[in-house]
Amino acid sequence: FLLITVLLSSCSGSPEVIKAEGPPPSVIPLPQSVEWKDNMYLIPEVNHICYNNGGEKTAEWLQQLLKVANIESEINSGESCGNWNISIDSALQEELGEEGYTLEINDSGVTINSATEAGSFYAIQSLRQFFPAEIEQGNFVKDDVLLRQTFIQDKPEYSWRGTMVDVARSFFGIDYLKQHVDRMALYKLNRLHLHLTDDQGWRIEIKGKPLLTEIGSKGSVEGGRSGYLTQEEYKELQDYALERNIVIIPEVDMPGHIYSALLAYPELNCPGNSNIGPKGVTPPELYTGYEVGWSKFCLEKPEIYDFVSDVIRELSNITKGPWIHIGGDEIEDPRYEEFVVKADSIVQQHGKLTIGWQEITQAPVSPNAISQKWWAGHGESVVNVKEIQSFCSNFYLDHANVPGQENTLNWCKETGVSIEDVYSFSSNDPNVIGVEAPVWTEHVLSDEMLDDRFWPRTLAVAEVGWTLESKRDFKEFLVRVAGQGERLNNLGIHYFDTPNVQWN
Ligand code: TNX
To answer: Residue with the nearest Cα to atom 4 of ligand 1?
Structure first.
């Protein structure tokens, strides 16, 4: 059948040449190298997708993409046997790395090459942005679909390209998080950090410590939502994310930011410390305020380490990624360093690697720990470890999009964190493994508000994480952001109407 089709199409003479009109697709993040050709590829009526070496999943993603564009296709395994060809070859690792790919579109079709499944997945994400934005609504019906011909060779600058959702101050559940994962994947982001616990709420089921959720999950900041993820939901979200090349990083913030756990298990508090809150909050009252740095474990009690072990054990058992985030921020205690070293070793005993906010580097943590930097000058580091950049002046998306935006913070930067502030991130530190943008949710009380904080600034996060600094140009980026507007609308994202973007 395939042979007949090939013969028939070659008998009908060379395909009609369709000249390209208009600007090329606004691909974000900008690929490392792109050659735009002058012609378009007209997707034919009969389509064959071929894959080899583990490219089946990618072939299915592609089939799905075509289906939403109302184009039927057949999948076969084999070498270059279709008009859509996916080829995975580990020999390309040196050139394309773990996540890179080439994408070629010419008169005979579309060819994807990569060393890994992740690379071919990212080729599909680029390709998706060649299709009309209507496909994001999931039901695009049009006769002819034309793709701009191109040759792209692409791979990321950084292996860590993340966002963080603070689900503790205000709860966001599995539906929002899955949607967030979909949106992240489209822009090639690959790490989702969940800030699962804080003074206002404990958001992950720990079966051996049931009161953490029975009591600790009931609160939130005033006006926010409460709740928690069951372990089943956590695993479901994690699998959903992994299918899209996104690793979940769970954070249990310790030894400070811990009031919701103290409320559930008061024995973790120091004796006589009944008036522990900034406003005299005393167990069993929930904390609904915004102050930080006031609650902590009683670090002289050895039992707290049993608690930490129980929590880390369960969390490690349900986590497929290699990392557990132990928090470690905003706390003063003479035994802080001792705690961090012990918590780090507990994480390692459970087969995981420790991540913590940058304060953990005041303690002699193991060399394979990772520091998440949020503040340029903060305490002396006693270790030299890998770093994730989350500088508040570039990446704190709870800060205002524009000066004075309602319900936002500005303690880090008075004028807020504009999309340009995100885009201007720059580093030549060899310890930096990537970037991550947190949204703290003290003032983010609905899905719409969270969308507004993440988008469109997360497009800039995606680009600074992926594209070499020497290839980045803010003005040109804004044109591509505008080119994504309809796509963001069709995805149902309530993005902030950034004034310097000429949305089209
Ligand atoms: C600082 S920076 C925090 C959070 C707050 C945030 C508000 C850091 C590791 N912690 O506890 O929510 O500021 O912007």
So the answer is: 440
d(CA 77, CA 89): 14
Q: Ligand 1: distance of its center to the CA of 247 in Å?
A: 22
pLDDT at residue 14, rounded to an integer: 56
Tokens of 489: 């609308």
Q: Are residues 272 and 406 in the same domain?
A: yes
Task: Write the residue with the smallest CA distance to atom 7 of ligand 1.
Answer: 440
The atom of ligand 1 lying closest to the CA of 442 is 12
The answer to whether residue 11 is domain-embedded is: no
How far, in Å, from the CA of 440 to the mean position of ligand 1? 7
The total of structural domains in the chain comes to 2
Residues 41 and 61 reside in one and the same domain: yes
Q: Are residues 451 and 346 in the same domain?
A: yes
pLDDT, tens only, 61-101: 999 999 999 999 999 999 889 999 999 999 999 999 999 99
Q: Is 374 in the pocket of ligand 1 (CB under 6 A)?
A: yes
Q: Is 486 domain-assigned? A: no
Q: Which helix (H) or strand (E) holds 43?
A: none
ipTM of the complex as predicted: 0.97
- 36 plus 123 within the same structural domain: yes
Which residue, 460, 414, 417, 418, is CA-closest to 435?
460
In terms of domains, do 378 and 414 share one? yes
Query: Is there a contact between 342 and 302 (Cβ–Cβ < 8 Å)?
Result: no
Closest ligand 1 atom to residue 396 Cα is 14
Candidate of 195, 326, 330, 396 to mutate for ligand 1, largest count of ligand atoms within 8 Å of Cβ:
330
**Residue 43, CA atoms < 13 Å, CB-side half-sphere:** 24
315 belongs to a structural domain: yes
CA 79–ligand 1 middle distance (angstroms): 51
Report the atom number in ligand 1 closest to the C-alpha of 257.
11
Domain annotation covers residue 492: no
The tens digit of pLDDT for each residue in 413-466 reads 999 999 999 999 999 999 999 999 999 999 999 999 999 999 999 999 999 999
Q: Which phi and psi (to 5°) does residue 253 adopt? A: -80, 120
- Give the residue numbers spanning the domain of 125: 16-154
Q: Tell me the pLDDT tens digit for each residue of 223-262.
A: 999 999 999 999 999 999 999 999 999 999 999 999 999 9
CA 166 to ligand 1 centroid distance, Å: 10
